[in-house]
Amino acid sequence: MRVLAASMLLLAGCAGAEQGDAVSQESSKAPEAPANRAGASPVPSPAAAKQVDCTASEETVFSCAMPGGKRLAVCAPSAGPVQYRFGAKEPELVLRGGKWARAMYSGGGEAQIAFANGDTRYIVFSRMVRTNFAAGEPNYPAISDGVLIMRDDELVAVRPCAGGQADMPVQYDAAERVFAQEDELFTDETMRADPDWSRE
What we know:
Elements: H1 2-14, E1 21-24, E2 58-66, E3 70-77, E4 83-87, E5 91-96, E6 99-105, E7 108-117, E8 120-129, E9 142-151, E10 154-160, H2 172-178, E11 180-181
Parallel strand pairs: 6-11
Antiparallel strand pairs: 1-5, 2-3, 3-4, 4-5, 6-7, 7-8, 8-9, 9-10
């Protein structure tokens, strides 16, 4: 899946968050993220999710293991709002609402899904950037996935997925179906998740 996503971004390089409703909230840490189905009318808060990972009846838009044995997932049910979930065996934070944006780079690209909970915004990202611009040589892409947390438009934290990459990076087709799309990325601070060697 990662190879396919990387190939699609490489080929493309060559050729908002909306307020969300918190279902539950982590009490001792900054919250993690929400999502919103484009054009959907408001619906009552769904029952609390029983697991972090998407169920068989939901479409996985993004999923990754986080450091410390926790997980992060963006799940699209067949009906109702998309959910952002973060936690261990059970979600510590579930948010809904959100928008997505994407950008193409030379030899790569980036997708972001932004969710809000009060003055805190969570931006899930999948990013691939070129690290070699020497003529006739491979571009050696650097791939990174995770979530960036901002409060009042100030960076709070960048939390890369364990190992730096997602089990399932942002799925463009799914994001286009379930989110309203913004014209520009929500932030450029995601570059802080790039491996150090990619900024040399």
